[in-house]
Amino acid sequence: MTNPGSNFGQSDIIRLGDEDATVAVLERAIIGMWDSVNELTRLRRTFRSNYRVTIFGSARLQPGTSAYESVKQLAAGLTEMGCDIISGGGPGLMQAANEGALSVDPDALHRSVGIRIDLPFEQAVNPYVGKAYGHGTFFSRLHHFMIASDAFVVVPGGIGTLLEMSLAWQLLQVRRLYNTPLILVGKMWGELVNWSREWMLQEGQALASPEDLDIPLCAGSVEETIELLRARREEWLRSQGRPDERSIPS
């Protein structure tokens, strides 16, 4: 008969009934796992074909709305310029971004990317995604956006879009992202930046530095957004020692 007090011949066995010790083991294992993930995500390709623009926006605004058609036009213009388009892969303005990309280059599916989250009420990837990635958690999905993108464009959206924008803004603030433009399109985001200036830069009780609030670039139109990104893409091409060229097949 097995002795209930036995450690199965090992001195370092931790029984599941010892809850504190079990939790400590799990915490160390999870931290070690994230250390490994952080090391792996430091790796980057030496050469990459195209400048990658992520468009964050609402899942609720449907085809036929002015916002949908504007995002579709924006993504088409960026794709024509030589950018790849990344979205959240779902419906609404995410679909508009992927649709705009494929409208310019229907044979290059790899240039229209969706980074999805598995939700019970939002199952299917939109039909214009050529290359899809799936995530079970918002944390890993947001991390994927941050390491995959050369630029972020934020169009009208709700709480999810606000979360995505805020993470990019904060990583740029603490210099965990470099040379990655964050462009906010539309009046709603411009008013948010103005609100931030009013409340976060009050004399004697500042909650941020003035330069932190200069990080997002506010644009009032599709054309202005494209021109901002044209300049940043040209800088990116020069940093790779390449001329101003259109997309290169992968």
From TrEMBL:
<dbReference type="GO" id="GO:0008714">
    <property type="term" value="F:AMP nucleosidase activity"/>
</dbReference>
<dbReference type="Pfam" id="PF03641">
    <property type="entry name" value="Lysine_decarbox"/>
</dbReference>
<dbReference type="GO" id="GO:0005829">
    <property type="term" value="C:cytosol"/>
</dbReference>
<dbReference type="InterPro" id="IPR031100">
    <property type="entry name" value="LOG_fam"/>
</dbReference>
<protein>
    <recommendedName>
        <fullName>AMP nucleosidase</fullName>
        <ecNumber>3.2.2.4</ecNumber>
    </recommendedName>
</protein>
<dbReference type="InterPro" id="IPR052341">
    <property type="entry name" value="LOG_family_nucleotidases"/>
</dbReference>
